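Problem: given the chain below (248 residues), write out its structure.
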Amino acid sequence: MKRIALVASQKGEFGGLLKRVGAGHSLEGPLRYSRRVRSGEVEWLLYADGQGARAAERACSAIQDAEDLWAMGSIGYCGAARPEWRLGDVMLASQVRDRRNEQVYPCWAPPLAAGSIRMGSILTVERVVRLAADKRRIGQSGVDAVEMEAAAVARVAKERGVPFFSLKAVSDTCEEDLVIDFERATREDGSVRVGSILAQALSRPLYRVPRLGRLANAARLASENLGAALAALFLAKGENGSGDDGDS
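Solution.
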């Protein structure tokens, strides 16, 4: 049995995987979300506790029997930094760079990845990159996508001597601004205040509400494609019952 720990920022990023392999069972612990799911020869340990490095580190610290892991992965949504990446595209990281300290983490690739999935360079940032111009500026340095957790997970995996991979799906392109200030909507601990998102949207409803709806649709597409990619890379098959949100 191969034990793989996956760290995301929110449970919705696991939705596509759970749709394919079943809901599994919740794990006891301090995190907002943690589950165990078995599929074929893989035991998935799923953890999510909010956005950013500190939340990812908390998730990593909650991993059960970490010394027995076959691999650790950072999965979830990302913002594209180059125009060739479109909504829903899945990217397997060739490397992850931490913008805070310029540390670069080479990434392991699952055996079935060769020729089956596009590779890209990921930059872990401290804040959501809202503006298209800023994403494109980052892309000019050779970065393909930005996100907020991968470098923290990579560092922990390196310390533990566990192979690390990062699989991300594009939820916003480098040609669009985000109409919601997610920095305002994020608490100190990395959790998101839904009320703040709704209040921002309703402050300019004709402009922001439709775009927020498109962002939600893009997130669902990204989650679905992440699940398909994970299932293909690790030959995962469902045997845990139904339930795509992991709450059953």
